[in-house]
Design brief:
Elements (H helix, E strand, L loop, with lengths): L9 H10 L2 E3 L5 E3 L2 H8 L6 E5 L10 E4 L6 H7 L4 H10 L4 H20 L6 E4 L17 E4 L1 H7 L6 H7 L5 H9 L7 H13 L6 H22 L4 H4 L5 H10 L1 H4 L11
Helix pairs in contact: 1-2, 4-5, 4-8, 6-9
Length: 271
């Protein structure tokens, strides 16, 4: 192994891993070194790191590391769609708040996010209870869905989805608009312990659906609903079904069947 001196930071860990691809284990076998070996060798005592480029097998010379769950990660930041002042002002206008008040709420929101990040204990990952890759039931980056998680829990939880009911029970917003509403109403943030318990529950559940699968299922459901709406959006039918008792609707449909019939699928019956 290299006898060079390394700084006890991300750069030191990265360089050590590049310079020391293998080691001898207790049995005298040559094995690949890992991040824990590097942490110990350089004296690194910061948050867990993840590979941002390259890997520990065949691209070690291209290795770059970053803090796990760090907002500075370009891909995560792009996917999270950071909140803007305009979103808060727009919500405020629709709900009777002035621009000054909306701006104040937005600035307080940013302070809460920073305070939450600073509260995470050393050695823990500050990560989402809800996956950032979820297209549905996701309010993006905010202090209400992030908490400090152990490396083990965070790894097993990766991309697994809590249900909307679980999220609401824990006080996690499921949409951007619900998050902004909570901020304007000054709704207390979820208890970090509650978030950790939910994350642990999700991590242990081997049958838990992942965000990618949920996104596909919900996209398919939206397409089915769209197809159904297009099928029902036929000449005269919307007027025929416009309110009233069941018998009144049936009478109206029967009275307009000469208009509707040419557009109905074969075998259509109004029961």
């Amino acid at each position: 192994m290299s006898k060079k001196k390394y700084t006890p930071d991300i750069q030191g860990v990265t360089q050590w891993l590049r310079d020391n691809p293998t080691k001898k284990n207790r049995r005298g076998q040559t094995v690949i070194t890992g991040k824990r070996d590097a942490y110990k060798a350089v004296g690194y005592d910061g948050p867990p790191l993840k590979s941002k480029a390259g890997n520990l097998t065949n691209n070690r010379n291209k290795l770059r590391l970053s803090i796990r769950g760090d907002n500075g990660d370009t891909a995560r930041a792009a996917a999270s769609k950071p909140y803007t002042l305009e979103e808060f002002i727009d919500y405020g206008k629709k709900n009777g708040y002035g621009t000054i008040h909306s701006t104040k709420v937005f600035k307080e929101f940013l302070k809460k996010n920073a305070a939450q990040k600073a509260s995470v204990r050393r050695g823990f990952a500050n990560d989402h209870v809800t996956p950032i890759s979820a297209e549905y039931h996701s309010a993006g980056e905010n202090h209400r869905n992030r908490t400090g998680l152990s490396v083990k829990v965070n790894g097993f939880k990766s991309n697994k989805m809590p249900t909307p009911a679980e999220m609401r029970a824990a006080g996690i917003p499921t949409t951007r608009s619900s998050l902004i509403q909570m901020e304007f109403n000054n709704t207390p943030a979820p208890n970090p312990k509650t978030l950790r318990q939910l994350a642990s529950k999700v991590a242990r559940d081997k049958t838990r659906p992942r965000a990618t699968a949920m996104n596909k299922n919900l996209n398919a459901a939206q397409q089915r609903r769209g197809t159904l709406r297009r099928t029902l959006r036929i000449r005269g039918l919307s007027d025929a079904l416009a309110g009233g008792s069941g018998s009144e609707i049936v009478d109206r449909v029967n009275g307009r069947m000469h208009l509707i019939a040419p557009y109905l699928p074969e075998g259509f019956e109004l029961l």
